[in-house]
From TrEMBL:
Transmembrane segments annotated in the record for this chain: 28-54, 66-85, 139-159
Protein name according to UniProt: M48 family metallopeptidase
Names of required cofactors: Zn(2+)
Keyword Flavoprotein: no
Principal localisation: membrane
Species this chain originates from: Pelomonas nitida
Recorded superkingdom: Bacteria
Lineage, top ranks: Bacteria, Pseudomonadati, Pseudomonadota, Betaproteobacteria, Burkholderiales
Length: 622
């Protein structure tokens, strides 16, 4: 299904749900039944063929056509049985019991009674900043369900008890009452079809090919038709949390999670991996994470993280609505809350310290080889900085910018403004130096920031999108001593609109399915490549990666990239999320589109068109 068709079907489903919710649900149920009918029909057809063909062959009517028919029927029977008897892997993490964490289980039981939900079969503790309840089929498309709660240790560190209970109530709300059971049944069915598709993806027999063809037609339409149901279910789960804990508590939990999650990704993990510069052996993160998550985020960072979260629109990439819509649905204003003063680790009882030590030890074991690579890489960075600093008197503007960039990797708090100013003395309109200068100017120095942004906008078309966003943000932010400048704000907003349109055209070029046209080998320096390899080494699901340059007609001088990653251990949904995360975090000097090896492009196409891989995981073939 084309993306435009998927979007159209989602919009039609949303309209149908809004006009007549009951009729919409009946339609969803009938379409779900179609999938069941396919499996049952294939099973009956295969069984009938086997029953008819076996006697024919046993009574001496041997023909190759009958033999091939029997083999095809057996293949179809096997594919149908696999659909009916799917096995799901247990969630990652460590199972905990009521004896180990009685306060947590008491809280879950109180929530279960209030929302009238089913019992939780198993509770898992893991190291992610998240909480989720997953209901999986016990056997496959038919049969009962297994309910598992996965609770992240960092979330227990970050939220106080009422806000954590609001999160747990939201998750439990997905399983509430009759409506919850219907939504959960649809969710289980979706998981089953995804799992079946993964199981059959590498099968090459005719029966599997027929089932794959049906799934290729059916599953995108099933996902589109059920999207409105899943989105409604998220809002309803939020409302349940609001009713039980209070709308202000539920909204505060949503905002605090957004801000602290951004802090973990942008600040904490970068700082933690930076410790490898002076520590050859890995250091567990969770003990220091506990101390830092108990502190209030820095006000400027928190305000910016909230602004970005509120700017994200509810889209079709995720059934979860955007933060702005979720908070508005609770009837609360989206503002920074009073931060949690104490986490909810007390819910784990006396074993909290033991679990922190356990996950620290596990993290060190899993990341030992990656930490070693990072230690070696940062050692090379330190040597390169020393070399650049020693020749600073004759360095070019580009070398000075490189020194500043590498120095920031070793110490993000280092004063870099003199380096950027020196670079601009040697090349007055060097765009990367102008960008670096803007980032080092004081927030209150509006005049200097806007002057530098104007110079950057004039100097390089490639940097206009960044310059216009920074200028608009600056002019929209109230500053003491500065009156609102409507004319300047209009100018920069108009420029931002034009720059955004140009960026969208460039991204359309990157997304063009003819991925290997106008590509060349990557142009990264040894240090740029080393940084990307170090980042990929910390991303455990990546087995292999390729990187190529993509020539853009919109920006002929821009460094733009396509990255291809091999992710055999993940589902397509998880692969999609990881690729989007890599696009935001990979340290390449330009925009990058990350794609996984799958149906388009295939692994063979990547091997033929993307040159040699830039990252083979330790212990794997290159």
């Amino acid at each position: 299904m084309e993306h435009a068709d998927f979007v159209h079907m989602v919009r039609v489903s949303e309209q149908a749900s809004a006009q007549d919710s009951q009729a919409y649900r009946r339609g969803v149920a009938l379409f779900a039944a179609l999938g069941y009918a396919w499996v049952i029909g294939c099973l009956v057809l295969a069984g009938g063929l086997v029953v008819w063909l076996v006697p024919q062959l046993l009574h001496g009517r041997f023909r190759f056509g009958l033999l091939w028919g029997l083999l095809g029927a057996l293949g179809l029977l096997w594919a149908s049985l696999r659909a009916l008897w799917l096995r799901f892997d247990a969630p990652e993490g460590v199972a905990i019991t009521a004896q180990e964490a009685p306060a947590l289980f008491d809280a879950l039981e109180r929530i279960r009674k209030k929302v009238r939900g089913p019992a939780i079969d198993t509770v898992y503790l893991d190291g992610d900043f998240n909480a989720s309840i997953r209901q999986t089929p016990r056997w496959g498309l038919f049969g009962g369900a297994v309910n598992t709660l996965t609770l992240g240790l960092p979330l227990l560190m970050a939220l106080d008890k009422p806000r954590l209970l609001a999160v747990l109530t939201h998750e439990y709300g997905h399983l509430r009452g009759d409506h919850g059971r219907f939504a959960a049944w649809i969710y289980r069915t979706r998981l089953s079809w995804m799992k079946l598709h993964e199981n059959l993806r590498d099968d090459e027999n005719i029966a599997s090919a027929a089932t794959q063809a049906f799934l290729k037609w059916y599953f995108p339409r099933f996902a589109a038709k059920t999207f409105a149901l899943a989105r409604q279910d998220e809002y309803e789960a939020d409302r349940i949390a609001g009713r039980l804990l209070g709308g202000d508590v539920a909204a505060a939990a949503l905002v605090e999670i957004e801000v602290k999650n951004a802090w973990l990704h942008q600040r904490f993990w970068a700082d933690h991996w930076r410790r490898a510069a002076n520590a050859e052996l890995p250091v567990g993160p969770f003990e220091s994470m506990r101390a830092q998550l108990s502190l209030a985020p820095e006000p400027g960072f928190a305000q910016e993280a909230l602004r970005l979260a509120l700017a994200r629109l509810s889209d079709l990439d995720d059934t979860h609505p955007g933060l702005r819509d979720r908070v508005a649905a609770l009837g609360v204003q989206p503002v920074l809350p009073d931060w949690s003063r104490r986490g909810a680790l007390s819910l784990l009882g006396d074993g909290a310290a033991r679990w922190i030590a356990h996950f620290d030890k596990q993290w060190c074991k899993e990341n030992a080889s990656r930490w070693k690579l990072q230690h070696a890489w940062l050692g090379r960075v330190r040597e390169r900085v020393k070399l650049l600093a020693a020749s600073r008197a004759t360095s070019s503007a580009g070398e000075l910018v490189e020194e500043a960039s590498l120095s920031r990797q070793l110490d993000p708090k280092i004063e870099l403004r003199p380096l950027y100013e020196l670079a601009l003395q040697r090349s007055a309109e060097h765009p990367a130096a102008l960008q670096g200068l803007v980032q080092t100017l004081p927030e209150g120095d509006r005049v200097a920031r806007l002057q530098a942004l104007q110079r950057l906008w004039t100097a390089s078309q490639d940097y206009r999108w960044w310059a216009t966003r920074m200028a608009v943000d600056e002019l929209e932010t109230p500053r003491p001593g500065f009156a609102h400048d409507a004319a300047a704000l209009k100018l920069w907003r108009d420029r931002r609109k034009d720059a955004a349109e140009a960026e969208e055209r460039a991204w359309e070029e990157l997304r063009d399915p003819s991925y290997f046209s106008r590509v060349t080998r990557h142009d990264l320096s040894s240090f740029e490549l080393g940084e990307v390899q170090a980042e990929l080494s910390r991303c455990q699901p990546v087995v292999r990666a390729w990187l190529v340059c993509k020539a853009l007609r919109e920006f002929p001088r821009r460094r733009a990239y396509l990255a291809f990653v091999e992710l055999p251990a993940l589902s397509d949904e998880d692969r999609y999320d990881l690729c989007r995360w890599l696009e935001r975090t990979l340290s390449v000097p330009g925009p990058v589109l990350v794609l996984w090896a799958g149906e388009s492009p295939t692994l063979d196409e990547i091997r033929r068109g993307a040159f040699e891989p830039i990252y083979p995981q330790i212990g794997s073939a290159s």
